[in-house]
Amino acid sequence: MGSYRHSLQHVLAGAAVxxxxxASPVLAADMSLKAPALKAVxxxxxxxxxxxxxxxxxxxxxxxxxxxxxxxxxxxSVTGLTGGYQAGYNRQLANKVVLGIEADVSFGSxxxxxxxxxxxxxxxxxxxxxxxxxxxxxxxxxxxxxxGGIAWGSTHVNLNDLGVIIPPKRYxxxxxxxxxxxxxxxxxxxxxxxxxxxxxDLARRTYxxxxxxxxxxxxxxxxxxxxxxxxxxxxxxxxxxGPALVxxxxxxxxxxxxxxxxxxxxxxxxxxxxxxxxxxxxxxxxGGQGRETWTADVFLGWRLWQGGEFYFNPELAQGFGLNSxxxxxxxxxxxxxxxxxxxxxxxxxxxxxRQTFGLGGEQEDVADGPMQLAGKRDIDRVTVTVGRFAVGxxxxxxxxxxxxxxxxxxxxxxxxxxYDFPADLPGFTRGAVVELNRKDWAIRGGLFQxxxxxxxxxxxxxxxxxxxxxxxxxxxxxxxxxxxxxIFGNRGNTGSYRNALGISAADPTLDINDVIVGIRRENTKxxxxxxxxxxxxxxxxxxxxxSWNDGRNEILSFTDVDRSVSAGLSVKGSYWGRPSDTFGIxxxxxxxxxxxxxxxxxxxxxxxxxxxxxxxxxxxxxETYYAFxxxxxxxxxxxxxxxxxxxxxxxxxxxxxxxxxxxxEF
Length: 666
Known about the structure:
Helices cover about 10% and strands about 50% of the residues. The chain is mainly beta. The strands form 4 sheets. A 16-stranded antiparallel beta barrel has the order 12-13-14-15-18-19-20-21-22-23-24-25-26-27-28-29. A hairpin with a 2-residue loop joins strand 13 and strand 14.
């Protein structure tokens, strides 16, 4: 229970930072897009908030066995890629000198597992925060500056021989100093962009590991941080200080060829004690549990040329799903990543180039939104997308059950659960999608990287995944609807359930999980899904999905499901005077192939499940939620799920899961 409280404190702290970040764009949403004309003089005076991404290098000191954190296209390092938030205030003087203060916090990336060398322990840095003064010189819309102040951060040590992180009391806080320089430029509206370098020197602290037979470890962080940031100015003077300064000097035209959107979501889940006569390695604990997750995303879009667009989506994610996202095939939290963390971790989740080729004829309006720039486009068009994204961004869409941040949370409700879509641990891949769109139908296909092994965070092109989807649009009694049919195939490094069972039967001394790892080779998994949505009357719609895969070889990326059906109903609150609220209710039934269930019954472990034995029954899920719109930017959702035969085991459960979700967007 102590670790639960520790995780809760971390998640709430991260969520508070995300909420602060949302505060300024919420105000921006009310601003007119028709800004005054550009003035000859620009003033840097005002309060601002913003975010940054970057890269860090340096050292935690000799003998610390520093974890290599992911650099993606750059070398792994002590921080890897970084992301975080900042807030501050500038005051421009009459002589063009700009004095300012700024506080920020930066978080590193997940561990680069293939680069992690064997060691009895590893050290890592969890975050770096600074509070600094800034001195700049205003050169119109440009401002070079120097900066310096205090810095602090947290480190911890992993004890690999015990397979656990040492207790929270062993986490240490380091205090030190920082100095750097940068340049900032006004880019449109109230937005400014900056590039900054900071050197961070934190005090040396000592971990005493002699109680576990290891030496004392001196951790002495010296970090170089390179940042690219975006700030939004809130006000020249705070609202509580009286009328704002109005001198007409600070207005820039609102940007037309780029946009910024963001979201933050906190989900807390818990379940009480359930029937559990036995438990295995991946079992949901019978004694009950509570966990939380938090994500914060920024979505940046640029129009490069006619039809050409680039999008970038940095994300911070923190927390754990129930039982570290283990124990249920239909997992109850769509925000729970398989690679959870007690502190926020940064990933560049999406970087996408999109080219649209119009085929002429009738056009349609495109609203401004995340991963979408406002404008017009031909209804008849061909769109090519290349980069990093989630397969679900383009396939298996549904108006009523698709986004666990705003509607159903269970994995079997917002996706075709038997589609083992290619993805790394947080659910993203790299590849290409081509779509031909017509007014009444569309066809799209994609090729993607797959993980190099089940539940791996390493994507490879040695093998791959493919999907083709046909979408039909129709009306029934003047009510719109869609029908989607998808066919998929993946080729990846997986083991055959039946072959593993045969080898284990021939030699009962062998562990079947070691056997299946030893026989992994390039195998194919194929299947299909059907996805339907239909508006019944205004603000009332229904959805249904059915999916199937061959079930002969290991699941590679998603979850332990070979057959699944789901259906539900979504009702907007216009019928009771709250048009922005939503009520949803639905259910799903998941199943396994005979080979897959025999493997689990023999003690096998799947991606998410494995009780050590199995009294097979279909996993049955009921979910209902009510999303209450607090205002136009924030929504609170109460969600209840009842899962019978968790992990397909009739000996365990059922389990009732209670959830609260706070979602904000701008």
